[in-house]
Amino acid sequence: xRVLIFGLVxxxxxxxxxxxxxxxxxxxxxxxxxDLNVKVIIDKTGxxxxxxxxxxxxxxxxxxIIEPAGSTVICRYDIIKFIWIDLPESPGLVLKIKFETDxxxxxxxxxxxxxxxxxxxxxxxxxxxxRTVFIKNNVKSNIPEEEFIASNKKYTVPSSGINVNDTxxxxxxxxxxxxxxxxxxxxxxxxxTMFMEEVxxxxxxxxxxxxxxxxxxxxxxxxxxxxxxxIVKYIKGKRK
Length: 240
Fold this sequence. Notes:
By secondary structure, the protein is mostly beta strands. The chain has helices spanning 2-17, 182-185, 214-223, and strands spanning 21-26, 29-31, 35-43, 51-56, 61-67, 72-75, 79-84, 92-101, 107-119, 122-136, 167-176, 195-200, 203-211, 230-235, 238-239.
């Protein structure tokens, strides 16, 4: 019996101490203009709570998120962030992204990433090795790489100078079961004080901006980089 109990304790400790592993699944060679399908497989056995996966991408790669694995996704010009406030219970995560590649691209392009997580109350991270994709192109464009880079999407939220009795539009970036600290909110927007928090139906809902028109709110929504963000209308301070 002692041997059995010791074995169980040892096995549990080994599981809890296991470091996560991150793997890539991606084609080595494509033609310019073709879609590139990327799969990221994360074994997170023993890891729970907050986590973030960052995928760094080259210019000319336009992402479409196919499977976010329960995360909130932020797309910027050279990085995609997958953020989990609370990781799913399953031991593994599978992220799927489809990239539309620019028809003018050619040569070797690199993708790499990092998985950030909490282990023993400390922040840790696991590196995803660099994967090189060779892009074939029979047309030599000789276009500088800088021309493939999209705008940084660092759109500014207007400071609130609107009367609370007016109709305003805000952009909701997420709803979570627990309160989100400013440190994590800054992943979505550089100034976390710009967020408004509402608690309803057991969820903490976070919106940003006091836009006087739907059009202005839509412009921010479409360019803030947060996958799945949507517009909420407020009349005299009340959500509609």
